[in-house]
């Protein structure tokens, strides 16, 4: 294999495969990149960067599973790159193994301090490097799995309440700083107890999965979030959108669920439907997160009282009937 390109890109012969890990090798010397590529290209997708700025841009855009990072580089040292990765929430969990030719205890200490998980000396020993990388990749994949289990609802695959609470707080602060509204809506499946009683719990679970996917598919913006916040209840976060905009979005959600056409003999329309409460607030000192959710809940209560399969805001002047 010959390495002729030294920008950030997949090296030849490293076709993507989901089981393969993505390794980023950062070194200003092509010969060192080539040596590591030869060790890993059979088992992993190897990407390369020849300076710190390239490496950071790559990690932010498409985070690799592990970074092999040269310590001494012109412009930005490996230590600076590692500190920048660890300071950014998007990239902090990417393990960094330092690769260096220096044999200096002070430098080794600096690598640990910067946040590296391991330290390899040049010239590299292929067996040692392969085994160290394998050990760190195993840990990384396990921690990814645990993180996913902690943040995602196991049944439907959408965000769980923990993720919702964390995002709500973050979006509330972000919208406050930007002087933008934050909208929330609570989506509740109608007569779901009757659905379970008639069709069984497994069918109920399948219905929940389909409804979750329909809600998710109706939210178009990157910052939107849907979370399963109760047994048959989902909450949507719609940042930087006012009540009118939020009503339009959740009316689409209501229609999308109805259009699934999941037969439900015990429902008014003969198919599974949802009732939705929606509210919007500005984090301007008077409003609170709890107040926003209470308003959305009041809207949901109104939608149920008004006959279900519809969207209601809390204040009563925005009521979009779907039935
Ligand atoms: N299959 C399944 N059912 C669930 C799950 N979580 C909650 N439920 C059921 O969801 C039902 C919710 O029923 P209720 O709160 O009485 O509400 P409802 O029957 O939907 O009535 P309305 O909301 O007034 O339209 C209960 O029967 C729960 O057992 C789940 O994970 N899977």
From TrEMBL:
Q: Output the PANTHER family linked to this UniProt entry.
A: DIGUANYLATE CYCLASE DGCM-RELATED (PTHR45138:SF9), REGULATORY COMPONENTS OF SENSORY TRANSDUCTION SYSTEM (PTHR45138)
Pfam families found in the cross-reference section: GGDEF, Response_reg
Q: Which GO terms describe its biological process?
A: cell adhesion involved in single-species biofilm formation; negative regulation of bacterial-type flagellum-dependent cell motility; phosphorelay signal transduction system
Listed EC numbers: 2.7.7.65
Q: Which residues carry this modification: 4-aspartylphosphate?
A: 70
Domain named Response regulatory is located at: 22-137
Q: Which residue windows are transmembrane per the record?
A: none
**CC cofactor:** Mg(2+)
SMART domains hit by this protein: GGDEF, REC
Select a single GO molecular function from the record's annotations and give it. Answer: diguanylate cyclase activity
InterPro entries listed in its UniProt record: CheY-like_superfamily, Diguanylate_Cyclase, GGDEF_dom, Nucleotide_cyclase, Rev_trsase/Diguanyl_cyclase, Sig_transdc_resp-reg_receiver
Which GO cellular component does the record give, naming just one? plasma membrane
UniProt protein name:
diguanylate cyclase
Q: Where is the GGDEF domain?
A: 180-316
Give the organism the record lists.
Lysobacter silvisoli
Keywords carried by this UniProt record: Phosphoprotein
Q: Quote the catalytic activity from the record.
A: 2 GTP = 3',3'-c-di-GMP + 2 diphosphate
